[in-house]
Automatic annotation (TrEMBL):
A Pfam cross-reference name: Methyltransf_25
PANTHER family: TRANS-ACONITATE 2-METHYLTRANSFERASE (PTHR43861:SF1), TRANS-ACONITATE 2-METHYLTRANSFERASE-RELATED (PTHR43861)
Name of the protein in its database record: Methyltransferase domain-containing protein
Organism: Halorubellus litoreus
InterPro entries the record matches: Methyltransf_25, SAM-dependent_MTases_sf
GO MF, one annotated term: methyltransferase activity
Domain of life, source organism: Archaea
The keyword Transmembrane is assigned to this record: no
Annotated Methyltransferase domain residues: 50-140
């Protein structure tokens, strides 16, 4: 991280109340939300437990709640978590819980089996070595699928038009992320470019894929890697 985690948490606490309406009101963000939700649903059934890392105000987790048995949202910002809890209460969702957790320490109870892990617009705050540690932590939960929507470089980013804040963010190239997925034990089954600096990666558990016991591999089409928006 370019800044201490406490500074990141405080920054998001300050913007929590306006985050949905102002901070991420972009076509790219909305496209990522849609792609992440669709890819997660493809790997879920009604008994699934979903973990949303860097959940923010709950955009992904709340969208998946009606299709899951349980959703856990984790974030470092209490302000963002408060917004997520309020939205869950307003929607009458009782199978969703939000609490403090980090990529490298997700704070998942030992007796909870996680089936699908999702994250949207959060991991780019980590340095590349921290991203690798985060992928290993996700893999240790033994999910069938990990879906990552984030700022990532599909080519050389235009320094005049960055889709991120260089002073606080640290996006990786798709190549670095793909290697981290593979090293952690995921088969990268889909990579979609929403923008030359934004995309969605889908990783499936290699052992589950080999055994054929994944809930759904509808998106596991390696021929589609790098094809761009669909």
């Amino acid at each position: 991280m370019k800044r201490p985690i406490e500074e990141h948490a405080a920054r998001f606490d300050e913007m929590a109340a306006t985050y949905d309406d102002q901070e991420n009101d972009t076509d790219e963000y909305r496209a990522c939300v849609s792609l992440v939700v669709d890819a997660a649903r493809d790997a879920m059934d009604a008994d699934a437990t979903v973990l949303d890392l860097g959940c923010g105000t709950g955009a992904i987790g709340l969208s998946l709640a009606e299709d899951a048995a349980r959703v856990l949202g984790r974030d470092i910002s209490e302000g963002m978590l408060a917004q997520a809890r309020e939205k869950a209460a307003d929607a009458g969702l009782e199978n969703v819980s939000f609490g403090e957790g980090r990529f490298r320490d997700p704070n998942v109870p030992d007796d909870v089996d996680v089936d699908v892990v999702v994250s949207n617009f959060a991991m780019h705050h980590l340095a590349d070595d921290e991203k690798r540690e985060a992928l290993r932590a996700v893999a240790a939960l033994d999910p069938d699928r990990f879906v990552l929507g984030d700022v990532m470089f599909f080519g050389l980013p235009d320094p005049e038009e960055p889709f991120y804040s260089p002073e606080v963010d640290d996006p990786a190239t798709v190549g670095v992320l793909a290697e981290a997925f593979t090293d952690a034990g995921f088969a990268l089954s889909d990579a979609t470019s929403v923008h030359d600096q934004v995309g969605v990666l889908v990783g499936d558990d290699v052992d589950a894929l080999a055994a054929g016991d994944h809930r759904a591999f509808a998106r596991a089409d390696t021929d589609a890697l790098g094809d761009g928006p669909r």
